[in-house]
From TrEMBL:
Membrane topology field: Multi-pass membrane protein
Protein name: Probable membrane transporter protein
Pfam families documented for this protein: TauE
Residues annotated as transmembrane: 29-52, 73-93, 99-117, 207-226, 233-252, 264-283
NADP in keyword set: no
Keyword vocabulary terms for this entry: Cell membrane, Membrane, Transmembrane, Transmembrane helix
Organism: Tsukamurella pseudospumae
InterPro entries membership: TM_pro_TauE-like, TSUP/Inactive_protease-like
Superkingdom, natural source: Bacteria
Amino acid sequence: MPTLVIVAFVGLLGQLVDGSLGMAFGVTATTFLVALTTLSPAAISATIHLAEIGTSAVSGASHWRFGNVDWKVVRRIGVPGAIGAFAGATVLSNLSTEIAKPLMAVILLLLGLYVLLRFTFRGIDTKNLGKPLASRFLAPLGLFGGFVDATGGGGWGPVGTPALLASGRMEPRKVVGTIDTSEFLVALAASLGFLAKLGGEGVNFGYAGAILLGGVIAAPIAAWLVRHFPPRLLGASVGGLIVLTNARTLMGKSALALDPGVQRAVYVLVVAGWIAAFAYSFVQYRRDAVLESADSIGELAARNAAGADAPKAPVAA
């Protein structure tokens, strides 16, 4: 029972992150399941994707209700994503645990590093809003994102969300809503791929249910959090946590088996880099907030000045 409670909390944490950033549910949940359980990488990814069928359906329905979904983009990125996810599930299911566990840790570490650097140095940027996205961009992106998502236990959001944000052609809220909604197709295809190969062997349906429960509870909290906690700071926080956890997995006995002294030195470097990245993100966030406030005040002053200079209407006698 205590383990199920912890796993449910993992689902809650993953949904808080995903609902605020449009990414990292799978990366966050898989990272902690690798550290907490003895399940094989394929079984962990299958468990996460089974839970994601439910969490992505709830999240997608919520985003649709609030008008945050571009259904054309969902179709153009989600269908290739499902194909990539099925292929990735097949590949991971055929790998031995000795190979798959460090491989998954490397993928997760790289995704965590990407999230950390992406939100530390760039934040969220939008350009060319409203311009259409070409299928020749969305289809390969979906195929790659789906494959990485299945083989790494997560990656659909870290691959898709920054790419769509960087295009500058969609509002951030629609990027998050569209990626979360299309993830239903990816999670469904990955789950079918794992079940076809594993036949349910090793998959922990209790963990999947606990993760689903935690994710559903977190959905409204995430909606509140995204309005009160800056996405830039949340991205830097979660990215660093993912890097640290997977660095620990890689340096353990099952992978690199480094000397304890070397491991401690690496941990110190990772934590120091994480603190520096968060501090930089905070400084940049404060600077951007001040600039935005100054722009708003200047705009208001200009409007007031224009109003004061306007000719007054004659007063009727």
